[in-house]
Design brief:
CATH architecture of the largest domain: 3-Layer(aba) Sandwich
Helix content: 25-40%
Strand order of the largest sheet: 4-3-2-5-6-9-7
Radius of gyration: 20 Å
CATH superfamily of the largest domain: Vaccinia Virus protein VP39
CATH topology of the largest domain: Rossmann fold
Order of helices and strands: EHEHEHEHEHEHHEEEHHH
Number of helices: 10
Largest sheet: 7 strands, mixed
Number of strands: 9
Structural class: alpha/beta
Length: about 250
């Protein structure tokens, strides 16, 4: 490999051709679509994606990799920190919803997911490689040990599907964890209407702040302080509450 993986960027380069083919097949890119790849690295997925979509925007922070990627005229290279990229502006520029894909840096994967959350209405779908543990939390059902703040905040806005796992040996250098591919399909806008995202996030944060305790000790007190008249059952733990109930509470308070 001519470019050494840089730890500060969380780089692990996908090298397994079979895994790459499976990911591209799951994405199923088509010509004319507004496809955005986060963290293309050495271009393991970039080439196969281009074969099917013809044009591609890539977001790469590593300036040496960005310079290599610019040699391909079919690529629009944004040399930038993905957490500072304006995805709403990208959607406006393309005049259509975005399809966002990528092998996300595991050290900032959750911040990236939350950065994309406000623009879910401008996105057609998202396909990401993440640490398997994170994908399990994203897709977790109420009542499970993995169900938490990440589950609620993402499932409020997306249908989240754990597609398949990717072993460490599919990368160079291999990470210390098993990875997984996740598909995220935004719910229709009307389903998410009239919800203050900031308020919902605060409710969920308070609820899961002491997840072993009944909600009456955390969210219950928070609601009392705001004069909430009741109707929300607090004699249960945060992980027992379905996403729809957290959303309904945010609507009622908003």
């Amino acid at each position: 490999m001519s470019h050494p993986a840089r730890k500060r960027f969380g780089q692990h380069f996908l090298t397994d051709r079979g895994v790459i083919d499976d990911i591209v097949a799951a994405i199923d890119p088509r010509p004319g679509q507004a496809l955005i790849e986060i963290g293309p690295g050495l271009g393991a997925m970039t080439g196969p994606l281009l074969e099917r979509c013809e044009r591609l925007v890539v977001i790469e922070l590593d300036r040496d990799l960005a310079a290599r990627l610019r040699r391909n005229a079919a690529l629009e290279v944004l040399e930038a920190d993905v957490l500072k990229v304006d995805f709403a502006a990208l959607a406006a520029q393309h005049g259509q919803p975005l399809r966002v894909v990528g092998n996300l840096p595991y050290n900032i994967s959750t911040p990236i997911l939350f950065h994309l959350l406000p623009v879910a209405g401008r996105v057609l779908d998202q396909h990401f490689m993440l640490q398997k543990e994170v994908v399990e939390r994203m897709a977790a059902a109420p009542g499970s040990k993995d169900y938490g703040r990440l589950s609620v905040m993402l499932q409020w806005r997306y249908h989240v599907e754990h597609l398949f796992d990717v072993p460490a040996e599919a990368f160079d250098p291999p990470p210390r964890v098993v990875s997984a591919i996740v598909r995220m399909l935004p719910w229709p806008a009307e389903r998410c209407a009239a919800v203050d995202a900031g308020l919902l996030e605060e409710i969920v944060r308070v609820a899961f702040s002491q997840r072993r305790k009944l909600l009456r000790h955390t969210l219950g007190r928070w609601l009392e302080a705001r004069g909430h008249a009741g109707g929300f059952e607090v004699q249960r733990r945060a992980e027992e509450v379905p996403v729809a109930e957290y959303v309904a509470l945010a609507r009622s308070l908003g």
